[in-house]
Every structure is written in C-alpha cells, then in structure tokens.
Amino acid sequence: MATPAPDDVTAAQQIAAQLAQRDGLSLFSFWPDRLRHSALILLVAGLVLAALAVFGELPAARAVAAFVCIVCAALVPWRLHNSDIITSEALASDPVQAPAVSAILTGLPDPTVLLDRAGRVIHLNPAAAQLAPALRTNEPAQFALRSPEIVTALREAIATAEPRRVTFLDHGPVDRWMELIVTPVAVPTAFGGRDYCMLMTFHDQTPLRRVEEMRADFVANASHELRTPLAALSGFIDTLQGPARDDPKARERFLGIMHAQATRMARLIDDLLSLSRVELSAHVRPSTQIDLLPLIRQVVDGLEVLATERQVKIETELPEQPAIVAGDREELLRLLENLIENALKYGASGGRVIVTLATVAAADAVPEIQVRVRDFGPGIAPEHLPRLTERFYRVDVGDSRAQGGTGLGLALVKHILNRHGGRLLIESVPQHGATFTAAFPQAKSAT
Ligand code: ADP
User: Quick one: 326 and 445 in the same domain?
Assistant: First the structure.
C-alpha cells in the first residue's frame, strides 16, 4: 500500500483535530454530537424560562414544569437515535462483540479492516496493519489509505450501502496488484433499527495477473510461430500459380521448401498438443513401472539416421541392471528424444554425444535415476541457462528454425519431469559443450 509518509500522517491527524475543534465547542467536546445539541437547546430554554420567571412573566412552578418537559423532549429522541448508530467507540467497547469480531478478523489471512459508517477504523487484522501501517483504530481510514481508488470506493459504499470492488497497483518494495472489496454489513441496533459497518477486504491479484500475462504471451508467440510458415506457404502457392507456373525446376525447389514449412507447422502443433496434454495431467503422478534402459536404446536407434547425417557418434554408458521409474512411456520417450536430438542438432560440431544412466543414492531420500546427455558442441552462455525451459525461448531463433526447432522442446521436458516428480539440471561451459540431466526418483518397488 502506498503508505503515507509520517509527515502526511501528522498532517492528517492535525486536520482531524482542527475539524474536531471547528465542530466542537471545547466545553462539550468530550460529549457525543447529538447530546451536545440537546444540551445547547436545554441551556437556551433554561435561560429563557429563568428570565421569564425572574421578570414575573411566568410563575416559577410553571417555569420549572416547562423546563422538565423540554428536558424530556430533548433527551428522549437523542437516546433513541443514538442507540441506532453504530460508532467505532460503541462497537469497539462492546464487551461481548469486540473480542469476537477482533478474533475473527485476526484469523483471516487477507488484509481486512472493519469501519463504522463514518469511515473510522473499528478493527483491523495484522495483515491489514502490514499492508497499511498508518491505519489506526478510531481514526478515519481515508487518511491512511490515500490511493484515490480506495477512497472513492469507500465513499461510494458508505453513501449507497452497496458493495464496491476496485483493483489498484500497490507501490511497495515489490509492486502488487491488489483488489479491494468494500462490503456494507448490516448490523441490528438496540431499538430494532439497522445500521451499517463497512468491511474492507484486500486480495493480492498479482499471481493471477502474471498467469494472465503469460497466457497472452503464449497465445501471441504460438500464433506468430504458426503464421510464419503459413505466410511462406501461401507466398509459394502464389508463385507457383503465377510466374513459376511453367518452370519445372523452380516448382521442384518451391515444393521442397513448402514441404519443410508444412512439416514445421505439423511439429509445432504436435508440440503444443503434447504440452497441453502434459499440463492437463500435471497433478496425476504416473504409476506404471518402466525400465528406462530399453527406452534409451530405442530413442538412440531411432536417431541414428540424424546422427549419421550430422556426422555425430552417439555413445552410451548404461548399467546392466534395470533402471525402474514410475512413469508414462510415451512422455519418457518424448523427453529422451528431445534431449538427445538437441545434442545432435546444437552440439553437432563436437562430433560426439554421450548418453549415461546412473543411480545416485541420497542420504535420507529416495535414490535418483539420472539420465545424462552430454555433447561437445559450442555450449550455452550462462545468461541463457535459467530461461531455456521457457516456452519459445531460444538462444538463436534463426539457428533453431534452421534445425526445425519449435522452441517448445525443453519446456515439454521440464513439464514431463515435473509430472514424474523429477528435475532437470543444465550445465554448460561455453565452447566445451552442454550436459542435460533428467533426474527421476527411483520407483518404490525397485528401492
Ligand atoms: P528448439 O525447438 O529450438 O530446439 P528447445 O526448447 O528444445 O527448442 O531448446 C531451446 C533452445 O536451447 C534451443 O533453441 C537452443 O538454442 C538451446 N539448446 C538446447 N539444447 C542445446 C544444446 N545441447 N547445446 C546448445 N544449445 C542448446
């Protein structure tokens, strides 16, 4: 919350004091407003009656009787009216309600403030005190919450007795998007009437906003990635229908490029679908017992053609005994494919890729099965490492596209590992290659 500076708080307190003085007739300043008015009326009436009695215009007994009637007339409506007003002092000093209300508010995790109808603080919980340290009980909340959105919402809720909801940016050490809901709460009064307290609750909307921004970024990136090959395809279709119509050589070349672009689109759609499938089942841990060794051999065999094409030799260092994890076969194949294919594509210049599997014992935890894919290519600069698993993040977009990459491979790897209770480690020294390690908890029955 934009907390007012101490100077501002003092200024606000001075204004409050001035207002009290201006309204207030220091003689009666400790009396409630309405009693003060009654006392004034009685004072004037008493003086007039006394004068009439002194000057013999009214018998003394009648003057006294008239004064008693006026006293009753002045005090009874005040008593009635006053018992129908909820004030911060009244609620806060109520021996039954005050501790209960205060305890409920304290138990609420979100910042919450209870105000009387004049906007003065009756109770606030520790979260609210942390959000707006200038809030004080029995003082108007407006002085402590100076954000115009909050003040307007509070004023409107008080005036209309209708709930109000506003979102505002709280400039603190870390900026946060907060939502404030002001809810008028009807409170029954002693003489069967009804008055309102104002309940202000604050909710941190920052995580929601962040997710919303990420979703918007994702949609923008995905459409951009799809539109690029689509634009190329429609460009070549136009050329083939026009200038290259009767040029068999150009037609062959363009059809080749169109085929590559269509494959890229298909791959992107495949990756997007896989990613959303993994996300959908993110909270369901796979339970099938799977041996990782045959999966590694299957993926390495499948990538031999690519390895030969890139002139890279794939070496494996695998143990004899099975490496069992609780997993989803298709997802594990996808994960291994992505890691080994990346090593072949981006680390081709090293001429070697080593795939290792090892079981690593941990002191108090389940042993880990680690699949390590190491290449000897150009490696990755340290500033890129933390962002590699973001969707569509690429060190070199042109290079990735030239390799048929979508920028989704490592994001998929990370999500698959999360679902399997595992983790991804990336190590790289520029010019000395990169090592990607997928670590899984060993399946319980295997341990
Ligand atoms: P892509 O579809 O572009 O391969 P990935 O998510 O699989 O997307 O990889 C993201 C980026 O990480 C790649 O574009 C590449 O720049 C970098 N990268 C991945 N693996 C390696 C590697 N073994 N060596 C160097 N860079 C790599």
Answer: yes
